């Protein structure tokens, strides 16, 4: 019996279905990498803000901080 475009366990050919489980240490490593990345971006953004004698971090401060780290973000006017 062939399935016509349905999803589920019967086909077995399309995708793996469901949520893949990953080990616990991956979560901790991912959290540490994200924390380091955000710390660097925020530190640079605050430096731009302080240099401009402002007390509010703007979106452009974030864009410039990301660009400085080699992660250019498009879609914001400069």
From TrEMBL:
InterPro entries on file: CENP-T/H4_C, Histone-fold, Histone_H4
UniProt-annotated stretches for the region Disordered: 1-20
Residue spans of biased composition, Gly residues class: 1-19
GO terms assigned for molecular function: DNA binding; protein heterodimerization activity; structural constituent of chromatin
Alphabetized UniProt keyword annotations: Chromosome, DNA-binding, Nucleosome core, Nucleus
Family: Belongs to the histone H4 family.
Protein name according to UniProt: CENP-T/Histone H4 histone fold domain-containing protein
């Amino acid at each position: 019996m062939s399935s016509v475009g349905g999803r589920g366990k019967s086909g077995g050919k399309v995708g793996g279905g469901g949520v893949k489980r990953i080990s616990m240490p991956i979560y901790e490593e991912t959290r540490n990498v994200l924390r380091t990345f955000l710390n660097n971006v925020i530190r640079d953004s605050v430096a731009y803000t302080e240099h401009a004698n402002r007390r509010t971090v703007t979106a452009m401060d974030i864009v410039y901080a990301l660009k400085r780290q080699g992660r250019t973000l498009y879609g914001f006017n400069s």
